[in-house]
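Bug #77: duplicate submission created two jobs. Keeping one. Sequence:
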Amino acid sequence: MSDNAHTSVVAPDGNSRLVSGFLDYLKIEKGLAALSISAYASDIAQFSTFLETRKRTLLSARRKEVGDFIQQLFSNAVDGRSVGRKLSALRHLYRYLLLDSKIDHDPTLNIDSPKQWKVLPKSLAHDEVGSMLRKRHPASSKKQAVAIAARDQAMLEVFYAGALRVSELISVKLEDLKLELGCLLVRGKGDKERIVPLGKLAQNVLEEYLKEQRRVLLAGKSSPLLFPGRNGRQLTRQRAWQMVQQASSEAGRKASPHMLRHSCATHMVENGADLRTVQTILGHADISTTQVYTHLALDRLKNVYRKHHPRAKAR
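Kept job's structure:
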């Protein structure tokens, strides 16, 4: 079929029915987490609203509408990574509709990903991470305050050591920690499991925390969580963000949990780790997501080449 027409006709409320079916597919078939599904729904709803101004529906959208939508996002100063995420959501939607025979042409085909989407995420320098992970004094000498400080210290170490996402860290269970083996079982997006190694420093801080402070935090209650809040409740994502931001501001830099995750990946690549290993540790389903670190790996390759190849240097 040409790029200019679709035979499919959709009822006025057809968009919502289509999207509902797609979101069910993401949840049941793909096993995506609620937060990921919510992001997909939001991005697709934005595109649907845009299509209404063009008198089109999701089924009758053409390549031109997808391109114009992306152009409008850039015109409204939406950053490249967000544009890339929205385009990715549309690609997944139209792939699903194609497989489900709802359409016979994918309007996202041959739409280039925004170059800005490939920008390397911000990361911290080695010394900035060192300052963030430095042991801090508790807010007071009370037992609970000392226990919270020990827990937060252990969480920061695990954030950086294992490049965890916020949702992964706050839901990790005590039984998932294999301290004697120096690793942690992490459940990531789509409930996929991966083993994350923990360095000696992280192991030491965790051992110290588990000796007594976790028990103090629980105050007689029980919890399966490795990092429980008071009385065994699960910490919120916001609380984890606050903890990272407080530690980073004390170190003279405003950072987020995501920045700690990317700092781990960046420092590993800079020190010679291959992208497949980094992909495994980060829990990326697709190597293309990890390829934002490619230029770091190339920089290191060039440096090694210049240092060791007999004809690399000008005489």
